[in-house]
Amino acid sequence: MAFLKNVYHALSNTRDMKEPEVYKAFQEKSPVITELTRLKESGDPAIDQKKVEDHLKLFTIGHAGEKSVFFELQNAMLPMVILHDVYIQYKGYEAQLDFVIITHKFILVLEVKKMFGNIHVTEKGDFQRVITNKNRIVNKEGIYSPVNQVERHVGILQNLLTDEGIIKRFPVKYAVTFANSKTILTMAKKAPKKIQQCVIRHDQIKPFIKRELEQDSPSFLLDKEVYRIADAVLKFSAEKPFNREPYQRKGSPAPTDLPEENEVLSEEKTHLKTALLAFRHERATEVNTNPALIIPDDVLHQLVKKKPVTIKELAAVQGIDFEQVEQFGADITGIIQTAVDTRLSPPSTDEAIQEDPVHKASRDQTRDQRIDTLRNALMSFRTTRAKELNAKAYYIFTNKTMEAILLKAPKTMEELLEVEGIGPKKAEEFGQEILAIVRESRGS
């Protein structure tokens, strides 16, 4: 009956929807929890059981939080379509959306957090977890801003739906809810307005959505258009594959007996560290936060040491958490891949025969400096154009695309169009400026 009801709504020019309808339901048995439980019960000595147990606890707590939020949404008695646990991949980016809620006036991406302790938001918009004991603060620590995380998710979803022609001017909003009933949420009086408006407790979800529905909107969709968006989100939603690799025990790295190779790696690491620091600084500037909150120094050291070029390898790096992989994975691996590729690119046969070590070192250093200069110029251009257009930096081009530009160094519009992430529209809008920057970096 529910299926026939949805078909009827989809074909009708009406707004008959009066209550929540579930398009993708909450799963009592989470696939991730199932896989982690399987690892825990396997007794496999090659598995880091401590890490498995820690993550199993975290995912179980998070799953319980999402269940309580799902209950609130189901019983909100508001016209909306609910999709839980939506995982999408688009143009090299991926996003795990806890809830996607579609109404006649807007789409809402709802991020759920369930954590121990109280939450305080400072005047600068930094999030702090505060642990108390008998009304006395015993620990206070900064946590990564869930608002930054959900903003990125919104950007990916909005780009997907816009590029696919599903929406044009339809608003995509976001909110963050803390699902622990014992968590006290406090904010500084001068905390950023956008955070005050979008960070809520789970028992405030219904009033929040109701207030948003009462606001004016550039669109007021029919039921069939709401279902069309829901169908599109469902179409692009996939089951996120479980990755066992982060739970494998790591052996000691094999020592090398080649001092010449160590010397080359040292140069490569210096170049890679510079690129990662530039990326970290840019992302921190975009979200107005401390660079160490984007990639901590100890994690950056591990990235330079391990040089992961796939998401699986990145997830296995000590100190990298799931949120960092989700938010920055494609960017980080793209930067590292570029550094590795440029280092491995061999000279021509004649150069290889004639070039002595001194000239080779000089050539490599010059190439690395040129790449760093070009990267900084592209970042500066992207930041400037994003501000002019009042858009996110990744709208101009993503970090993955930027690394591809560094690798290919296109000279013509035809070569630029071969770069992943540069289509006719991007080429028309930004192509000549990008080519000019590349030419200038070559000194031509």
TrEMBL record:
Pfam families noted in UniProt: HRDC (PF00570), NERD (PF08378)
Domain NERD: residue ranges: 61-180
Superkingdom, natural source: Bacteria
Compositional bias (Basic and acidic residues): 356-367
Organism: Salisediminibacterium beveridgei
Protein name (record): HRDC domain protein
Upper taxonomic lineage: Bacteria, Bacillati, Bacillota, Bacilli, Bacillales
Coiled-coil region list: none
Stretches assigned to the HRDC domain: 266-346, 368-444
UniProt-annotated stretches for the region Disordered: 345-367
Molecular function terms, GO-annotated: nucleic acid binding; nucleotide binding
